[in-house]
Write a structure and sequence with these properties.
The chain is built from no helices and eleven strands. By secondary structure, it is mainly beta. Strand 3 and strand 4 form a beta hairpin.
Length: 104
């Protein structure tokens, strides 16, 4: 396992918001909850993969912009369909003003 750089902290989303980053062939969604970062897949696992960066984040709940499926960004848990799968979660580390995810 290695670390993949997602972004520098100066371009990370501010608290209470989210932002998408391309990391190699991965699309990673970074959510900032009170200064703590969470990294998940940037695409909804339902019907064509909506770009979750266009969704809404209220507290820890992310709502898909296309069909309103809801996920908890802290652990990827599906809270409301129509999606049937959880979001993929990537463990992340903040080091030297950068966010990294653990690569497989």
């Amino acid at each position: 396992m290695g670390l993949l750089k997602v972004c520098d902290l100066d371009v990370a989303p501010p608290s209470g918001s989210l932002k998408e980053f391309k990391v190699g062939n991965l699309e990673i969604l970074v959510s900032n909850i009170d200064g703590k970062f969470f990294c998940t897949s940037a695409r909804c696992p339902h019907a064509g993969g909506a770009p979750l960066s266009e969704g809404t984040l209220i507290g820890t709940v992310l709502t898909c912009p296309w069909h309103e499926a809801q996920f908890r960004v802290t652990d990827g848990l599906l809270l409301r369909g129509p999606a049937t799968e959880n979001l993929r979660v990537y463990e992340n580390i903040v080091r030297e003003n950068q966010i990294f995810i653990e690569a497989e």
